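ZP: hey, is the adenosine-5'-triphosphate complex queued? I don't see it on the tracker
AM: it wasn't, my bad. submitting now with these inputs:
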Amino acid sequence: MKNPFKFGTIVEDEFFTDRVEELKLVRRVLDGENHLILISPRRFGKSSLIMKAVHEIGRPYLWLNMQRIIDVPDFAAKLLKETLRIYPWEKLKHLMSHFRMVPLVSMNPLTNGMDVSFQPAMSSDVLLEDVMRLLERVSTERRKLIVVFDEFQEVHSIGKGLDKQLRALMQEQKNLNYIIMGSQESMMTEIFERKKSPFYHFGRLMHLQRIPHDDFYKYIKERMAPHSADVDVVVSEILSVTQCHPYYTQQLASQVWELLTYEQQTDNVVETAINQLTREHDLDFERLWVSFNQTDKRILLELVEGKNPMQMRQRASSTQYSALKRMMQMGYVIRNEQYEVEDPFFKYWIRKNVL
Ligand SMILES: Nc1ncnc2c1ncn2[C@@H]1O[C@H](COP(=O)(O)OP(=O)(O)OP(=O)(O)O)[C@@H](O)[C@H]1O
Ligand SMILES: [Mg+2]
């Protein structure tokens, strides 16, 4: 029997739930001339949402994960490689006539795709300009190209001034939609909402939220039902632990399903699943915990104890503020209605081992 829950990769088809309104909004933006900026904490379902949207829309799309890019020439080469993957060579050959630098394109028999490289001496500005112009040339009004930049907050580490250069090039393009995603909220907000940033007000800004409780409830219940007599209790417990975080909910539900299915366990099944998952990560959590300084630890403990963030704020020193900010940037703390430890299993581990 196949586990009906999936976590860790992009989810599609029967593993994908809800996001009805979000999909409508994405579609509306892509039907027009605008661009979309999608921000959320890690593993909230950005990539899954956008993958579903672009598949449904059925237009050609390029997808680049900025985390996997080393520098600007690599960025230009990967963009070109993706372009070669979706458009026929016959079409591209002519459109590349404006290139000031002939790229080396070769067939890779292992991947069955094309490999692209540029001669190292070439200025990276020129490479990027040529490739970005090509994107506009291949795109047609009837089948507008969609360009997805995932983990866009990496733009600063790829090349100094790359954000400025990209923005200038994008501004000139027509008949293209960009979707820009990122998970380090403070950095993404800085890129798109700071007045001085080249990407200030670049497109429609969308903050992805958790999956609504009732939808997630129904989704889990349907998949858990044949195995559990107390299905309502089980589902409620799962969601109360994960607070509807898409990734952790699927992870915990998957573990619970295994206990119910393969071990026919019925008592304290959610508790057992949490214990198992926490134990699996025991070493990582231990290492993580010792890597925090005293201020970090104190803040984490307060969050685990459910202390009111307003109380924290009143007496927060600048050290505490910057510790909180840093832990948010690193993704260990997120802000929902209030500050929270991001990982419910790490929270559980702290409660068990430190408190
Ligand atoms: N619409 C959904 N329905 C059900 N589960 C979902 C949905 N979206 C995301 N998930 C769960 O969350 C996990 C993470 O999703 P995804 O990789 O799309 O998020 P992300 O925000 O792109 O993450 P990252 O920050 O790592 O890039 C999925 O593997 C899945 O378990
Ligand atoms: Mg992603």
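AM: back. The first helix runs from residue 20 to 31.
ZP: great, adding it to the tracker
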